[in-house]
Amino acid sequence: MQDLSQAVPPKTLSEWHNPSSRTDVIRDLIHGVDRYNPSNLSFMEDYLASQVQDGSYDLLANLAILKLYQFNPQLSNPDVIINILLKSLSASVNGSDFNLSMSLLREPAAILHDIESDDARFMILIPFLTHLHDLIRNCRFAAFWSEFNGGSEGATILRAAYLPQHPHLIPTLRVRFATSIASSFSRISLIRVQRWLDLSESDINDWCASVSWGIEGSDAVIPKNGDNDVKAGVVRENVELSQLTKLIAAAAY
Amino acid sequence: MADPTAFYEPEDDELLSSLAVPAYGVSAHAFHDEFQHLQELEQHAYPPSVAQQEEEHLAALEAIPQDVKRFLILFHQAILENDLPSISNMYESGWTKLTTAHYANSEWPEAELISPLVQNDQVFLTLYRELYFRHVYARLQPTIDDRFQSYENICELFNYLLNSDGPVSLELPIQWIWDMLDEFVYQFQSFAQWRANPKQKTEEELELLAEAQQVWSCYSVLNVLYSLIQKSHIDDQLKAEKEGKSPEEVAELGGEYGSKPLYRHLGYFSLICLLRVHVLLGDPTLALQTVEHVELSNTAFITRITACHVMAYYHIGCAYMSLGRWPDAVKTFVQVLIFINRMKQYHTRSYQYGAITKQCERMYALLAICTTLSPGPSDESIMAIVKEHYGDQLSVLQRGGEEALATFKELYLGACPKYLTVNPPPYEDPSALEVYAQNPPVDPTQRHLDLFLSEAQAVSGVSTVRNLLKLYTSIDASKLAAFMSPDETDGEDRVLEQLMMLKAASRTYARGQGMGVLDGEKVVTNNLDFTIEGTMVHVEETTAHRRYAGFFVRNAEQAMRAFNTIRSSPLPSPSVRRPQSAVPLPNSAIPPKPSATTIANGVPASDGAWQQVTKRQVRIVG
């Protein structure tokens, strides 16, 4: 389970490439040659399903699934691919997770060809998710929600077939967007937050409280986090003694 | 090799049995045996014709230039004796010289032809064929037979190395070991590219491709590399070395195979090759994970083979680019380029100089991309070269807009790795192949280009708003919107979105001191920063003080050089000086080293003075 009570970016990447939710079995698997063994596939897919269920996230394990599909195209499972893309879509606003997943995939028609399937939903969803990712990547949050909730074929399939299985998708997306907002804003109008996070007027107060944002009049007040309270600074040169060893050595003789 | 999934088998023996000569190879051998058998039969039936054949063979052997024959005999001798200096010398210079003299535009003699010269030593002939095919790939156009035979030969070689009873006693120079593995991956890459396009293939080629699916397949290549890595326990060895274990402890971890230099080096270079293969297959996180334990500092083993050093850093940099970690990519490229520039005088004569220069040129182009996407201080000397080579492109990139996107594309296509697809066209199914040829899938390089461009567009799109912000200390978003997109109704939202992207573009993760390759900590990469209060944007610019350390160090170094030059120049000739000196010094009184005081025409510049100057500078700097 990822921490959704704070809208600040993590300080390091250790949780990204080595999440605490990862078990030793999975760790050994993705660090060894066993990751190429197709008989581990169902085990890996179960791990993905548990991520979908409990809201945890392990990109490297999910990429290992796509790697197995890359080498064993006949084993590809369109549903699993969509789940992986949805997980990476909600992983971050500016991260490369979605593109890393995409770079292991071929075009949807080729994937379907190898499993002799004509899953029309898959053909529609891949470009739709790519489009959603573009909107997120460009911080176009209002546009994202109107696409996501819109009447297009992709949105309809997504909401009908996938959203019910992804209880954490929307809350996670909201916190990701809020993280972007919190890096830039120290204060922002509630109406805008509502629009960017797709929240109703009745929910907005509770939601703000859940990420410890304060409310003053019609504005949300975002706590200082190092990014939204920048001060002009002067960078002083800082020379370590170790950088001067050569010079000192030359001086010593 | 029949079972393509075999290489993850944990059992060592089983693991390696999968490395056995591929099915294609076996059948070829069977064919070969049959052929020999037939030949023997023929020998009995028609003795004259065999004699004639032998004569032809002898004549062909006779036709081989004398110096080549002598070279091969000595080469064989050196390899038998594991005489590394001689092998190195013949491998690096002898072979190249003879190639230029006799085989600039043709193949070296076939291995079968020269086998009498080397007592039919199969190991030597396998090594010889490895060089033979490498020459074909480098200088000539390889035919499909060359490609297949080269694969078969290299499999035989790895088979010999991995599946003999215990480690083999062969020793090879590290340069050769690297070149061999590098060539292995190169030929795989070249084959995959050639195979990816079913057009313009002859009937025979199509037939062979349909039959031999496993030849140069991704699985077989990964199989070889992983087997070499596992056999040598190189990961455990490198980990132990990083932990500061003694060489004996490390050797013990290496085991029967890994403690031998040949296997250790095979394992080590396999890691680098694997890094490259993973990047080519579009898996940068796995690529970086592969070199987790490899020491990458400027004094590490990796720097001993320049080509390997460059290859590794290029691919690590590319992997960081795919992760959007521009500062890490910049750091990686700069680090290796500085090294290469310093070493230039030593490797200009190397036979690989051309290839290395080309790879470096690519990194300069990628640096132009990365430094545009994440501007920040970088090594001045390297950036000067980037500006010299890509000055025009850089100014277009920094201007932004459509034109910049086209330039990103051009630079990226010229400098990115040649990405591969794992899955070959369906050669085994002619009708499917027809469909495939008419409607080919998107080229993998094109797919990676698209992913890169979407990222580049997002990051570079913020340059307009950044330039506007520079002019203000605080400004309302609605006013910015009026400048940027006066016609749009939701202009204010768009500006705020752009500002959030600008914020994101100036924050990234970078690998800190002592961190793993995938690790990173949050860093701020831009000096222009801001906070938005409601819709009011407050701009804060961080200014950097002038840097003095570099200036002082450079000048101190220059003074040092001048001083050394003076110190080492000979004394003015005694015939000029003697008349001036009142008391002629006896010979023994002349100090062995010319002292600075006597040289510098009366200006005291003793060692003591030099010390003082430097100390004062250090104080200022510190």
UniProtKB/TrEMBL annotation, chain A:
Gene3D superfamilies: ARM repeat, domain 1, Winged helix-like DNA-binding domain superfamily/Winged helix DNA-binding domain. GO terms for cellular component: eukaryotic 43S preinitiation complex; eukaryotic 48S preinitiation complex; eukaryotic translation initiation factor 3 complex. GO terms for molecular function: ribosome binding; RNA binding; translation initiation factor activity. Pfam families: CSN8_PSD8_EIF3K. GO terms for biological process: formation of cytoplasmic translation initiation complex; regulation of translational initiation. Belongs to the eIF-3 subunit K family. Component of the eukaryotic translation initiation factor 3 (eIF-3) complex, which is involved in protein synthesis of a specialized repertoire of mRNAs and, together with other initiation factors, stimulates binding of mRNA and methionyl-tRNAi to the 40S ribosome. The eIF-3 complex specifically targets and initiates translation of a subset of mRNAs involved in cell proliferation. This is Eukaryotic translation initiation factor 3 subunit K. It comes from Tremella mesenterica (Jelly fungus).
TrEMBL record, chain B:
Residues 570-592 are annotated as: Disordered. GO terms for molecular function: translation initiation factor activity. Residues 570-579 have a biased composition (Low complexity). InterPro entries: eIF3l. It is found in: Cytoplasm. GO terms for cellular component: eukaryotic 43S preinitiation complex; eukaryotic 48S preinitiation complex; eukaryotic translation initiation factor 3 complex. Keywords: Cytoplasm, Initiation factor, Protein biosynthesis. Its main location: cytoplasm. GO terms for biological process: formation of cytoplasmic translation initiation complex. Belongs to the eIF-3 subunit L family. Component of the eukaryotic translation initiation factor 3 (eIF-3) complex, which is involved in protein synthesis of a specialized repertoire of mRNAs and, together with other initiation factors, stimulates binding of mRNA and methionyl-tRNAi to the 40S ribosome. The eIF-3 complex specifically targets and initiates translation of a subset of mRNAs involved in cell proliferation. Component of the eukaryotic translation initiation factor 3 (eIF-3) complex. This is Eukaryotic translation initiation factor 3 subunit L. The lineage of its organism: Eukaryota, Fungi, Dikarya, Basidiomycota, Agaricomycotina.
